[in-house]
Design a protein that fits this description.
Layout: H1 7-11, E1 28-37, E2 42-51, H2 56-60
Antiparallel strand pairs: 1-2
Length: 61
């Protein structure tokens, strides 16, 4: 059987965050959608990428 947890135990859990190895800030994941032309028309490619202070200007700029 599973261990009983109170609401306070669930609320106090820390959210799992990855940090950037270069600038040591937490990564915020966004969905990056890119439109590409194909033989039949337009196709959309989407990737989930991590954004931090290092690559913020590259992604948004």
């Amino acid at each position: 059987m599973a261990k009983k947890q109170s609401f306070a135990d669930k609320a106090s859990k820390k959210k799992f965050e990855k940090t950037c190895p270069v600038c040591e800030t937490p990564l915020n994941y966004i969905k990056f959608v890119k439109a590409e032309r194909s033989e039949n028309g337009w196709r959309y490619r989407s990737n989930n990428i991590g954004v931090c202070k290092c690559n913020h200007s590259e992604v948004y700029g």
